[in-house]
Amino acid sequence: MQHIFVKSDIYSHPNDTLQAYKKAVGYMSELRAGKDFSALASRVSDDTFTKENGGYVGYITSLLMPLEYEHAVYNGKVCEIVGPVSTKHGYFIIKILNSRKSLGQRRASIITLYPNEKNEEEWQKIKLEADSLYNCLHAGCDFDSLAQRKNKSRELLKSKGDIGWFDNSINYHYLMKEAIFQLDSIGAITKPIKMSYGYIICKLTGINDSLPSFLETQKVVQKIMMHDETRSNWKEREAIRRYKKQYQHTILHKNLEDFITQVDNSILLGKWEKPTFTNNKELVKFANNTYLFSDFAAYLEKNQKHNKFPEKDKLIRYRFEQYIERILIYEVFQHITIENEELQMLSQEYHHGMVMYELMQKEVYKKAFEDSVGLYEYYNNNIDSYMNPESVSLSYFYCETEKIRKKTQKLLSQRPLKHETDSLIISTINKKNTNNVRVQQYHIFKGENNTIDALTWKAGNVIQLDSLTLVYINNSYDPIPKPFNEVKNTITTQYQNILEQNLIEYLQEKYPVTLFENVLQELSTYYE
User: Fold this and answer.
1) CB 115 within 8 A of CB 195
2) What confidence score (pLDDT) does residue 153 get?
């Protein structure tokens, strides 16, 4: 894919949204007239991540881009330019360059090198270092050891550069993904790849030519579906879209802009109070009903600030969209055909569902968050369920040569007697050369690192991991309870389950249900 992005928040002033749309349409016209897509993307795209590369995105797969974007691409053809595609954050013009079957999954480890400053001299230095590492690897140097010494990221140091399994649904940079997918055997290494932040060298550590099963990815898919605004609640949004077509209504946009001017910034603090309007204008017209300033103001007073909207105008337009959907549903239920028994039952089910929802909100979900005393009491009563495993604090010493490693090992072996700290040992060995040895401290729990798990966790132990790396055991710790704030989300969920069970038991006792087995048996004869 290549794309050009025109930024436009759907809750901005309508004139701004219209200007962004006209701009996107203008770009489409230029492309149809023969304008080079890459050149145009480099000049005008608002997507800074892809702009420098002519809008090139690389290969994508489902669940990676907004749903509207995905629909446009999967319904398009290779070499076709589609758009403008409207999304919540703006308009996309997309060029479909190629398509291919899934290449499955790959696992890789990486070494990252960053220039100290973003100038030509520093970039040249880091390139020479990357080339030197690449030559060293081809000469037989151990990738894991270099990854532990050279990576500046703590996570990459900890994992020896391992970034795990990935496919095209993972939002890694396309340069890195494609370079790894081109490697044909485990252990193969890429040439240094220049990224915006530095250079990387990748090693292929695993190949899986098929995608994982749905059961393996179900949790990941559910998480994406829940947090991607273009996919969550899609059934409800599709229903709203159909209702808007079926139940024609008119929004008086000029009056809405007038309404916005009569709301001050106190709404951003949740302190706005509905005024008495001297001119109570119309905002929305349905066939039989008209909704005024005062109607929307009553809704707005109950639904004020929102963390995603620090600007008053956008917040009000967002709430107005919610308000339209609410009165639309009301209009739908007002027009349900009374003679239709199925629709009557649906309406009743909806009503009962809403009542149950409000009850659950009040007695379970909201209560679990607000009842801090009950929540903390539940934590104390079940504290054995929230234990950290035993852990160890240790220091990694990364040495430049075996001679330095031996010297460091000698000092560490004397450390319990002389009580030397890490910094004293480092200052002693680095007196002539500051690069002789470097140290990094970690606190690791049992089960986080197989290598560390296999060591003897005795304070004062000095362990040689490889020819250049030493580990010093500072101390070991017995299992201790996790802090309340660390497990609060888990406790809240469990506490909600307790409250829900208590509510069900209370309702069952207050509203007993009688099951007529004979009627049930008679009914069952109508079905196979």
Assistant:
1) no
2) 75
Residue for token digits 């480092």? 426
CB contact at 8 A, 396 and 469: yes
Q: Which amino acid is at 28?
A: M
pLDDT value for 341: 67
The residues, any chain, with a CB within 8 Å of residue 79's CB and separated by 6 or more, are 95, 96, 97
Task: Find where tokens 């040992």 sit.
Answer: 425
CA nearest to 492, candidates 375, 366, 361, 374 = 375
Tell me the C-alpha distance between 230 and 237, whole Å: 10
SS3 at position 130: helix
Token pair for 106: 């790959």
Per residue, the 3-state secondary structure of 491-527, as one string, reads HHHHHHHHHHHHHHHHHHHHCCCCCCHHHHHHHHCCC
Amino acid at 322: Q
Residue 24 near residue 83 (C-beta atoms within 8 A):
yes
Cα Rg for the chain, rounded, in angstroms?
A: 31
The mean pLDDT values, 10 residues at a time, for the chain of 528 residues are: 91 88 94 93 91 88 86 92 90 93 89 86 90 90 87 80 85 88 92 89 90 78 78 78 80 91 91 91 86 92 85 91 86 62 71 80 81 86 88 93 91 75 88 91 90 89 91 90 86 87 87 85 76
Chain centroid offset of residue 72 CA? 23
Tokens 């220049």 sit at which residue? 194
**Helix (H) or strand (E) segment spanning residue 364:** none
Amino acid (1-letter code) at residue 51: K
| Inter-residue contact 78 to 96 (CB < 8 Å) | yes
Q: Write the single-letter amino acid at 76.
A: G
DSSP H or E segment with residue 471: strand 469-477
Answer for the pair 189, 143: CB distance below 8 angstroms, yes or no. Answer: yes
